[in-house]
Amino acid sequence: MRIVIIGAVAAGTSAAAKARRNSEDSEIVIYEKDNFISYSGCGMPYYIGGEVESAGELTPRDPAFFKSKYNVDIHTLHEVVSIHPDEKKVSVRNLSTDEMFTDYYDRLVLATGARAVIPPIKGTDFEHVFTLRNINDMNQIKNFIDSHRPQSAAIVGTGFIGLEVCENLQKLGINVTMIEKLPQVTPGLDSDMAVYVEEHLKSKSVSVVTGSSVEEITEKAVILSDNTEVAADVVLLSTGVRPNSELAKSAGIELGVTGAIKVNSKMETSQKDIYACGDCIEQFHVVTGKPVYRPLGSTANKTGRIAGDSITGGRLEFRGVLGTGIFKIFDLTVAQTGLSEREATEQGYEVVVCHNIKPDKPEYMGGKEMVIKGIADKNSGRLLGVQIIGYAGVDKRIDVFATAITYKAQVEDLFHLDLAYAPPFSTTKDPVMYTGMILDNAIQGGRPLITAKELDALMESGEKYNLIDARVAAQYDKGHIDNAQSIPHSKLRDAANEFDQDTIAVTYCNKGVTGNAAQNILLGKGYKKVFNLSGGHKQYKKTHQD
């Protein structure tokens, strides 16, 4: 059997390696139009910033390696320009000689990846304007910085790559401005979590512009939609990627609703004996079961392995994605998995949200605070999504949550997880467990939560309510929510008799724990509707900064 694979980065090489493990007799050929293969794209920002010293560390494998270890022939600088499914042939151009030739296949794998989106902005063709998608892009940026020594940079877009490049440029002494057309940075996060990222960027002397788009790029600046000029000796366009699905479409292969190649669980396309994997394919979401496009290196490797297994008669099938992602911005870690609150609401779920603010381990062991936002379905109790921002221990918590969501865990299940505990690693009840406890209390335990946004709506509605600050008086005096009454937790049992039990009551403390205790007192005294402010005054204040 002759297997032809188009593309030799994460998915294509994974497909080839798995196919070879399953079938020693197959001929396996890969065509790659670039001159680099199997590289670590996620490491590119760190090479630009000097944390990775050698570009070779990101490109450890070359065609000779694959020939020696897997007996796979990889032809770089070769572009497949057309596919002929009826004849089982592909037309290939040698980009070094411009020679055209035809090859045949028994099984064909498309691993054509994705390309950076270049928005329709005047000036994107200047030599100081870049995208970062492959090793050649990386080298061009590094060479430009080394030769021109730019003093200022503008990064258009605030996704993972843009933020990682921001950190690395700042470390080189370049003044960075992040520009985002949406009202918040990190569009994948909910706005009440994105505020932490924006605040952190500003604390590191990064300028942040939101709610404004770039109209034009000049030699030394970018001009925004409000005519503001931002100094920029170098510009990075980090405005997303688009699947390279045109080759597939021209061959009559069906595309999905996202514009990426539609595949089934075995990576089969609509054309017989043609498979696809990696950043060019459409995935489906584990929670909703609906099509999504989430191009990530981890998913590319996984789907590549499944494609290689399928074409050689294996049993592997794809089980979907949660869009799990994590990145570092200076010393802050940001992670997410599953549905955001915005996405869950759009999908029709009746959402319950909590903001759990806890240290990753005891403070006496150097624990640092993390903020965990949990999103759950009120009707089923199922955990739908989680976002975490913190300085340590974020990675292991997000992986626990991703596992729980994958296996359709209820929020109450999180408390019962037998997680590892010792003071150097965790608190006795891990923040994962606390998140489950808070959500379970809200859904089944009669301890409903109210978010900062919902509290604002209540205060503006004209409905009567009592807002109770359960902290000590000194904390109240230092800062409190408008219209709140200072009734410290220690005095609430006596003061509770002064209020109408049928009027809505909202309790809060600094982070939520004492607010919950105050909520319990009022409920125990017969109050009908008592809400605890999610994340307490700290979360509320964070979302109401000027």
From TrEMBL:
Q: GO MF annotations for this entry?
A: oxidoreductase activity
Q: Which domain of life is it from?
A: Bacteria
Q: Where is the Rhodanese domain?
A: 461-545
Q: Does the keyword Ion transport apply?
A: no
| UniProt record similarity statement | Belongs to the class-III pyridine nucleotide-disulfide oxidoreductase family.
- Which InterPro entries would you find in this protein's record? FAD-bd_OxRdtase, FAD/NAD-bd_sf, FAD/NAD-binding_dom, FAD/NAD-linked_Rdtase_dimer_sf, Pyr_nucl-diS_OxRdtase_dimer, Rhodanese-like_dom, Rhodanese-like_dom_sf
What is the native source organism of this protein? Sinanaerobacter chloroacetimidivorans
Entry keywords, A to Z: FAD, Flavoprotein, Oxidoreductase, Redox-active center
- Protein's name in the database: FAD-dependent oxidoreductase
The cofactor named in the record is: FAD
